[in-house]
Automatic annotation (TrEMBL):
<dbReference type="InterPro" id="IPR023214">
    <property type="entry name" value="HAD_sf"/>
</dbReference>
<dbReference type="GO" id="GO:0016787">
    <property type="term" value="F:hydrolase activity"/>
</dbReference>
<keyword id="KW-0378">Hydrolase</keyword>
<dbReference type="Pfam" id="PF00702">
    <property type="entry name" value="Hydrolase"/>
</dbReference>
<dbReference type="InterPro" id="IPR036412">
    <property type="entry name" value="HAD-like_sf"/>
</dbReference>
<dbReference type="InterPro" id="IPR006439">
    <property type="entry name" value="HAD-SF_hydro_IA"/>
</dbReference>
<protein>
    <submittedName>
        <fullName>HAD-IA family hydrolase</fullName>
    </submittedName>
</protein>
Length: 212
């Protein structure tokens, strides 16, 4: 298996391609929202480091509902109650656009009838907000969303669930993710993997595998 696009170390033909979503297909950046709401750069940095942090956000990916997490955080930081509420209400503004180049690769794979799937660490409520805004996912046969399943990458359980749902053995699927821990977990379970850095590198890997 290779995560760099080196075909010399490939072990099996890829029958399906499985994408991560955040920072592979779409950008995710808390600053994209809160820079609109906090004018002072130092205060913005402090807020993102202490109040609405990526680490705090990840509990939504694990399945916790906003009705619990928002009220808890507001109780902890009452002076920021309105900003914390804005995160739930304006989450889509943390997704400022697509990662350059990946959507074109998705379409090229689809044009060649390569089965497409996704495994994403994404809060269920946030996914329900986001999914209708992104027609690219109409090309995907199925998407495993961690917040719905209440298990998240890199736990082996989510990869086992995905293999069952997608109906391909792990060794026949190429899993693409920007997170090294997720890549290592998938590789240990027999998946072929690509550690995403940018679309150009991914394009070379897909071409080397004869997928596009």
């Amino acid at each position: 298996m290779s995560d760099t696009g080196n075909p010399a170390v490939e072990t099996a033909a890829v029958e399906a391609v499985v994408f991560d979503v955040g920072r592979v297909i779409v950008e995710w950046d808390l600053r994209a929202l809160f820079a609109k709401l906090i004018d002072d750069p130092a205060e913005l940095d402090r807020f993102l480091a202490e109040v609405v942090t990526e680490e705090w956000h990840f509990q939504h990916d694990a399945g916790r509902p906003l009705s619990e997490t928002i009220s808890e955080r507001q109780a902890e930081f009452p002076e920021h109650a309105a900003l914390i509420a804005a995160y739930a209400e304006r989450f889509l503004e943390t997704l400022p656009g697509r990662v350059p180049g990946t959507a074109a690769l998705v379409r090229r794979l689809a044009a060649r009838d390569v089965p497409l799937f996704a495994i994403t660490n994404f809060g269920a409520e946030f996914w329900d907000m986001f999914r209708p805004t992104e027609p690219l996912f109409d090309l995907f046969g199925d998407i495993v969303v961690s917040g719905r399943e209440k298990t998240m990458k890199p736990d082996a359980a989510i990869f086992a669930l995905a293999a069952e749902r997608f109906r391909y053995p792990p060794e026949a699927m190429l899993f693409i993710d920007d997170n090294r821990a997720n890549i290592d977990a998938a590789a240990a379970l027999g998946w072929q993997v690509h550690h995403f850095r940018d679309a150009d590198t991914l394009e070379r890997d897909l071409e080397a595998r004869g997928l596009i």
